[in-house]
Each structure stands twice: as structure tokens, then as C-alpha cells.
Amino acid sequence: MGLLFTELTALLSRRSVYCSKTASGKYSVCENFQLEQGNILYNRIAHTWQNGKCVYCGAGQKEYNRAMN
pLDDT, tens digit, for every residue of 16-38? Predict the structure, then answer.
């Protein structure tokens, strides 16, 4: 199972793996999935900071806050 950091990465990965935007799509090379996500999951989560880094993705809190301003 894959865990992705952005929705765009999830879409690109599904196209590469399933030859389709969704795992259950008309042109998908896999017929076993009922859900369009297949084994490539994307769920938006908030950063959780610990010692100046996100525990999930490793982003630096200082750099992230600078980009948001």
C-alpha cells in the first residue's frame, strides 16, 4: 500500500500503476478494486510538529511557516 503526500502525486501514481486516473476506472488494467483509490491512498492531514519537523513528511516548520506568510 502506498502513502502519498500530495493529491497530484496520488493521481500520477495511479496513472502509472493502473493506466487510469482511478483504480476502478474503465481503462484500468486491474479489475479487483471497488474503490477508485486502489492501493494508492491520499488523505489530507495536518502537519504535526515535533522538534521543528513534521512527524509525517519531515517538512521543516520554520520553512513551512515562511512559505505561508
Answer: 888 887 787 787 877 777 777 77
